Amino acid sequence: DTVLTQSPALAVSPGERVTISCRASESVSTLMHWYQQKPGQQPTLLIYLASNLESGVPARFSGSGSGTDFTLTIDPVEADDTATYYCQQSWNDPLTFGSGTKLEIK
Amino acid sequence: EVQLVESGEGLVQPGSSMKLSCVASGFTFSNYGMNWIRQAPKKGLEWIALIYYDSSSKYYADSVKGRFTISRDNSKNTLYLEMNSLRSEDTAMYYCAKRGDYGSYDYWGQGVMVTVSS
Questions:
Q1: DSSP letter (8 states) at residue B42
Q2: Which end of chain A is more exposed for a tag (fewer CB within 10 A), N or C?
Q3: How far apart are CA A75 and CA B30, in angstroms?
Q4: HSE (CB half, 13 Å, CA atoms) of A86?
Q5: For residue B63, which of A96, A56, A6 has the smallest C-alpha distance?
Q6: Of B5, B33, B21, B11, nearest in space to B90 by CA
Q7: Are A3 and A97 in contact (CB under 8 A)?
Q8: Residues of B with Cβ-Cβ distance to A98 under 8 angstroms
């Protein structure tokens, strides 16, 4: 299975820029997607195909990368962005998720 | 507005069975693949099953293969997950999720909690 590695946690202040990384154990081309899961809620899709913003998602969110290294950027961060962020690949079966990065807003 | 509403939440003993349902609205259900994804308490997300739009193909994670069965009734806009031989490690929030573009999951239900404990 393709393993996706994410840093466990980050803490930033409102107004700052934050980058959340996801590294795949093998190439996934650009078939990488990002989700936000706020406490007590279901995940929601933020970015698909590495860099495409899902409809309705604020332009503060952006994604980049290809192959094995991917980044989700939030700029500027707002208090409401407190959540866990997951990457997910769909290049190799089974489709797999990263372990999530918990973002704390100071 | 797309809505996915799961039901069937509960507490069951190890070795028993349970069936979850997910009613879809706001899109043409019969045109899309559907998935079940679970999340153990304080853990990450795990895809467990996919069914094609016409039920022609079904796929399972190794962790549930042979014990869980995904199905759908397009006339009722409903997705199902039949779970047999449940184990404590199956304890999780279970989400149904619509398959989106390029293998993403573009809509998720609110989830139902399944607890397997004696």
A1: T
A2: C
A3: 38
A4: 24
A5: A96
A6: B11
A7: no
A8: 44
